[in-house]
Amino acid sequence: MAELIEWADIIDGALYSDPQSAVEMKAPAMKLTMVIESNQDPQFIPALIPLLAYKSLAEIVAEPRVAERIPALTERHLQSIDILRERAQCKDGTIFFDITDHELEGYSKFVPYYLHPNCVYSVGLSKSSFRTKVSVGSNPWSKVEPMENLAKICERYGGGGHARVGAVSFPPGKLEEARRAAQEIVAELRASHQKHS
User: Fold this and answer.
1) CA 181 – CA 13 distance, rounded (Å)
2) I need a labelling partner for 171 at 20 to 30 A (CA). Which of 6, 41, 105, 197 fits?
3) Mean pLDDT rounded to a whole number for the chain
């Protein structure tokens, strides 16, 4: 159980030692997390729980019902990194990307910092069937301490979160409103970074 508890703590608290361990999906725990987060089968998790009590994470990801899901999810994850590499721009300490023309709900929020490790904040615009989302975060590995409370910024647009990460959800038909909010948040964070650096 020690391995399971250690990884549960790391994943739940986003306590990865570096962007590579959060993004590259090398550890069995990360592969299993990817499978769990994408799961749509109501029978899958109840079947997984007994395995967690008696098997190592490496043994679990080798189980056929888990292993068969990993290649497609890994491919999707790698595609999301490529899309973000193309879209994410880092300027004045803040990354911005708009991926509303892709179905990337559930992309790893750590990828922007993996691609731009010197940036402090990220603002991403994404879309799914039920919402348009502005995600706002701060780089957990940044050498510069974030100065802005991201929850307070998001609350002004009807969203929320906490000091280091927040989001605002808009109805699917409100893309331009979401885009305007994202651009205003990016401008505010870039101005703050310039002022404090």
Assistant:
1) 28
2) 41
3) 94
Residue 118 lies in a domain: yes
Q: Are 107 and 197 in contact (CB under 8 A)?
A: no
Q: What is the mean pLDDT of residues 39-60?
A: 94
Residues 63 and 154 in one domain: no
Whether residue 119 sits in one domain with residue 44: no
78 within some domain: no
Q: CA-CA distance, 6 to 18, in Å (whole number)?
A: 16
Q: Which range marks the domain in which residue 113 is found? A: 89-196
Instruction: Supply φ then ψ for residue 103, to 5 degrees.
Output: -90, 85
- Inside any domain, residue 81: no
Domain assignment present for residue 83? The answer is: no
For 71-109, the pLDDT digits (tens) are: 999 999 999 999 999 999 999 999 999 999 998 767 889
pTM: 0.89
What is the spatial distance between Cα 49 and Cα 43, in angstroms, rounded to a whole number? 11
Domain count, the chain: 2
Do 110 and 39 belong to one domain? Answer: no
Cα(137)–Cα(123) distance, integer angstroms: 7
Asked whether 108 and 82 are in contact (CB, 8 A), the reply is: no
Confidence of residue 177 (pLDDT cuts 50, 70, 90): very high
Q: Taking the chain, what is the end-to-end CA distance rounded to the nearest angstrom? A: 44
Compute φ and ψ for 167, nearest 5 degrees.
-160, 160
Confidence of residue 48 (pLDDT cuts 50, 70, 90): very high
